[in-house]
Amino acid sequence: MSLRNTYTSYGWLAKGFHWVVFLGFVALYGIGFYMGTLPVGPDLFAKIGLHKSIGIIVLALAVFRLVWRFINPSPDLPEGMKWYERLGAHGVHIALYGAMLIMPISGWAMSNAANFPVSVFGWFTLPNMIEPSKAAVENLKAFHGTMAWVVLGVIVLHVAAALKHHFINKDNVFSRMMPFSKEDA
To answer: Quick check: 183 pLDDT over 60?
Structure first.
């Protein structure tokens, strides 16, 4: 498997970014929804800390992923795709890249507004992005929560499109992002 993308498949680094960030989002959603069921207490604060740490790791990976994307373009889309499918594919990818940046940044800002530091697994603490503000906490909490649902919808759309390509179109769009796909040979 190649480090770099080819015209027909993603390289191992792009695939690694894709799947590690996906697993990060799965963890963030799982922890985030679970936090909503917990009473205020040590368990909730531990889960919030874990959620923040994973969110910042996703943010860092997103930055590296974007840099890699700009210096290593994606494989070509299938020639038979209609213009609106191409537009949709690009729009969903832009939304996903935006989510990888906006969600962690809004969480970081929300913590700062609540006067809580953002520590990444206790290894280091990020600088404060904004001053403490109850109004900002409420606005950022609403934004972060709403965006979580919007992003989840975009992820579902992304997965549905990939499955459509695999099972209906029978092209390589789905398989070229899978680890160890036949395009890697």
So the answer is: no
